[in-house]
Amino acid sequence: MLALQAERQTNPGHAFGADTKWQAEFEHSFPYRETPDQLTAIIDTKTDMEQSQPMDRLICGDVGFGKTEVAIRAAFKAVMEGKQVAVLAPTTVLAQQHFETFRQRMLDYPIRIEMLSRFRSPAEQKKVLQLLLEGGSTLLSGRTASFPAMFVLRTSAWL
């Protein structure tokens, strides 16, 4: 674990650019009022993303306190810079909820969102993986166990 952390500290990561007009527009489309803690988490996460150091941040909180919106905004920022994003979930139901929430929030933008879980047939999962490898999909929601062991996105950002 120490060796991994040392490697992360010495190898530069991707420094994302400042927020774009689309980012501001996207964030303003959030239908609820952000909590002070949620705003802090969003600002801190995006600030981390704009550094060349690989991000090492954990967002935690009770159900219903806006963690998904923090992830959605970070994912949007990454996708707008051409990165593919994987959103991992510990359960199939949560992966499905994330898939539906991300699709609804990003409906007005040129973002292709897919899902890997047992809710998809093996043929559908194979097609999703092929799309990802070819760069045809930009955001993936899925259960952790659904990802092949050595799977790597073309231009990755993991959430």
Molecular structure report:
The chain is an alpha/beta fold and 159 residues long. 45% of the residues lie in helices and 11% in strands. It contains six helices and four strands. The chain has a four-stranded parallel β-sheet with strand order 2-3-1-4, with helices on both faces. Helix 6 links the parallel strand 2 and strand 3. Helix 3 runs parallel beside helix 4. The chain is globular, with a radius of gyration of 16 Å. The mean pLDDT is 87.
Provide keyphrases for this structure.
159 residues; alpha/beta; 4 strands; 45% helix
Tell me about the biggest sheet?
Answer: 4 strands, parallel
Kindly name the structural category.
alpha/beta
Based on CA atoms alone, the radius of gyration comes out at 16 Å
Low-pLDDT runs: none
* pLDDT averaged residue by residue: 87
List the secondary-structure elements in sequence, H or E.
HHHHEHEHEE
Number of strands: 4
Distance between the termini: 20 Å
> Which sequence of strands runs across the widest sheet?
2-3-1-4
| Residue share in β-strands | 5-15%
Summarize the amount of helix as a percent range: 40-55%
Rough outline: globular
How many H/I helices? 6
Draw up the topology in text.
Layout: H1 2-10, H2 21-28, H3 36-49, H4 67-80, E1 84-89, H5 92-105, E2 113-116, H6 122-134, E3 139-143, E4 156-158
Parallel strand pairs: 1-3, 1-4, 2-3
